[in-house]
Amino acid sequence: MTQPNPDKTSIYIESLPGGSDDVLKGNFILNAKSKLILDTIPSVIIYVDKHQRIQFINRAFEELFRVQPEDVLGSEVLDFLGPAAYAQAKQYRENALSGKPSRFESEIHFKDKTRWIEANYTPDFDEDGNVAGYILLLNDITAKRTASFETEKRYRQLTDSLPVAVYSCDKDGYIRLFNKGAVELWGREPVIGKDKWCGSHLIYEPDGITPIPPETCPMAIAIREGRIINGKEIIIEQPGGQRKLIQPHPTPLFDEDGKITGAINMLLDITEKKEAEKKLAYLAAIVHSSNDPIISKTLDGLVTSWNEAAERVFGYSAEEMIGQPITKIIPGERRSEEVLILERLKKGYPVEHFETKRLTKDNRLIDISLTSSPVKDNEGKVIGASKIVRDITAQKRLYEALRESEERLQLAIRTTQLGTWDFYPLTGELKWSEECRKIYDVPPDMEVSFEFFSEHIHPDDEALVQEAITEAMEPEKGGEYDIQYRILRYSDKQPRWIHAQGKIYFNVYKQAERFIGTVVDITEPKTREQELKSSVELFTTMADNVPAMIWMSGNDTYNDFFNKTWLEFTGRTQETESKEGWLENVHPEDVQQCIDGYNKAFQEQKGHYTEYRLKRHDGEYRWIADNSVARYNRDGSFAGFISACIDIDDQKNAREKIQASELSFKTISNVAPVGLWMTDAKGQHIFINDTWIEWTGIPFSEQLGEGWLTRLVEEDKVNAPIKFRECMEKREKYSTEFRLIGPDGEIRWCLTEGSPYYNIDGEFCGYAGSVTDITEIRKMEERKDDFIKMASHELKTPITSIKGYVQLLLSIFDEMNEEKFRAARPTVRSSLQTISKQISKLTRLVSELLDLSKIESGKLELYKSNFDLNNLIEETVQDVQLTTSRHAILIHNDFEGSIHADKDRIGQVLMNLLTNAIKYSPDADCVEIFASGDRDNVNIRVKDYGIGIEKKDFNKIFERFYRVEGKSEQTYPGFGIGLFIAMEIVQRHGGKIDVTSKKNKGSEFTISLPVNTIQ
Amino acid sequence: MTKEKILILDDDPDISMMIKMMLEYKGFNVAVAERAEKMEEVLPKDRFNLIIMDMLLSGVNGVDICMKLKNDQQFSHIPIIMISAHPNAKSVCLEAGADHFVAKPFDMEEMLTAIRRFV
Asked: In this complex, do B22 and A970 lie within 8 Å of one another by their Cβ atoms?
């Protein structure tokens, strides 16, 4: 009899006593020594004969199943195990009875207990070589199994961290394992042992209509047919109704014997990729149809795409070029260019409009301008020119990873650069994975130990790590280990940041038995984090020191940062201001506006300008200009707002004052009796006032620019702007006159004067000026001109006459012939009479001029006295009667008495009215004068039967220099100031002068004077 | 000797009478027309050797009459002396075809010298 081999945990019994017959009968007797040996073996040993009766059990069996030998021995296996357990091992028993040894591991349920056992069947042969029975050796592997289950759990966590959806099914299609990615994709968690084939039961063909029964889904086909399914696309509908386009990659798993044990399926969510592909297809179409050659290449300068235009321009077909170096079309002397271009592209910079020469297939040099842009992947890394190819490569790699189903997880671990370690604290044994060694930069074959590990912890972090390990080692803390710390790399002693996560497994004595975990190098993210930290500090320092008040918010609507200036202004703290605290200090009337404004800004993710009143630390509300700007993350996503606020209270008050003054200016300008205008620096009108609008009758909008010219008379339309341009070029004062046609067609003479105006920086801004209505002045000037012409004529005429007569008289007196001299007597007399008359006329004209200048200078004085009006009328009529032989002047006097007035001046008025009456009635033969009145007033009327005056001229005749005139009428001599002077005189006496007239019938002038005599 | 006939056209009787008296005293045969219509009536009836007319006439412009006469074959040969108190009248009158211009107020000698140039 040999000793059982402890390594193999199997037993070989050679010298059992008794013949086979004894065995058959159940008289299985073992000698004491053999029994003792078998009882000390911890494994369960059973001997079963060829009739499947239990013939021997050892002590381990008794302990495991809690039975006595007498209860078991001689009974049949079926009876002992029960039908279920019997069926489970049926195949192995049959193997053993047919002479073949076999082995299996299984979970068995026995008397309400579930144990994992390892069973070894060894056939027993008799002397003839026939099978007499078999020896069954059972090992309890529950503990081992549980440990491996824990490992599996660990791996499951790792699987969960995989960026793809992965799940596995057993050979019957039951889902056994799935990761978080899969759950996210399915939108539900499948029930283990119930759900089959796929975690989602709503599967469709890519058309989105045809349903796929789960038993014909790619996973089911892979398991049923034992082949990898590739390239199939399906649509999964999540319980929420959301659909995902999926590319499953089910890969069957086989055992050592080549039997299918199940399959693992990786699901790729290609919903977005598909969209991208669509876009890519559009792009491709654009590239294809582009008239300009579009070429893409790798960073090594290999051509990866070549469109039709490129074929046309360079002569090479796409087949000839793709995969070829781009240098094929670069002339020899320009090859160095390409190196520079590639260098630039590698750095991520584009090359724009670079002009150079290229070589065609038929060796022609052509001039081209090239624009080349780097193609970047999602992380912004320059990958060359072909994004598509790169994408396929990435996909292919993942697919390859899947095919290696055995090491799929390890591979996944490796691709995430996750190192693993396995430490047995009791033995001190430490195992590091390849990746873990890479992190420490330790050669693969070098021994590592806990001491080695300890030595490479950064001195500053030693205490931290020690504490973490100690804590993890305490069973009641759960054995969790999760720490970030620095190590010193083995090769160069450089500090590296790592993130280690692990779990400790304790044995029954609560001793840490195994410590496994993962480690990942996080130096770069950590560095970035630190950079970020320092840049945040830098920002804070900067923000605190600027004079503007700054707040910042995240992409929620809450403000989470206020700089020192802000806090000093409000006299509050970061804490009280945070979230919506700052609103407490906003003026109650402005709060709603602030909230609305911010909400809008956040919705639109756009900058926002607002003004509101904010309470300063001293309690005073100050106007604040708040100008927020949207912030974006590096990936372009909205990150919130940052705003600089400025106290504009003083400014605002000033602005309000300006607005008020603007209003008064506007009012003044609009009510001013002059037109006002303003141009911009180009001379275009930007403002005109209401007065001007009224003059022109054209609305404001049509006046702007050069619209104001519309109403000018044609000639001035041309001249006025020319003059203006000339002045503007020299920035000179502008002054010109023009004629404006009003809405009623009346011509208005305008004088416009403008000056350049400048802003506070001294820049020329345009012209501002006024327009004065000079029509009246103009008319007056015209009349004055006429008056001067007329005055010279009127004065020269009597002088000419006097001069002529005087010279005639002289020549008569010089006549030596006495007879002739005597004969000339009548001529002398008539000449002297005429001279006298002409001198009176001259005297009257001169005194009229004198009166006019007295009136104009306000020096016309009255010398009043009481006099008899009738006497004055009669005297005056007599004087006037002398001047006319044609007219009879008739007096109708109904007034008796004196008046208190300037007798000479009233006489002058009567004289004027009577001479006018005669002058303007050349064909009539009488002029009448009426006097009437009471104690208070006297009315004197002078009536003629002459040419009359049109009604519209009634007022004009009293104006200076006005004379009744017209084409068809005679021009009457005189200054045209007689009536003006008469009116002045009458008015100075407190009276008035009126006229009634009818054309060609005659006129009647009436003067009313107060009597004023002291009774 | 036959007396030269001179026609005076002036609407101001003070002036026309003065000239008439002066010229008659000097031995001319003088006719006076106070209005243009009167002149048109008188002119064809007699042979005039000279016309003296005022530039400013009531209703009608002397310049227009002057032009009309100078364009009329029947009268274009008659010399015309225009007189005016208007300061700038000389050039206007000469342009209109007047043979001479005398400004008011004039010297008798000046007028006679001018007349003698033509008759």
From this structure: no
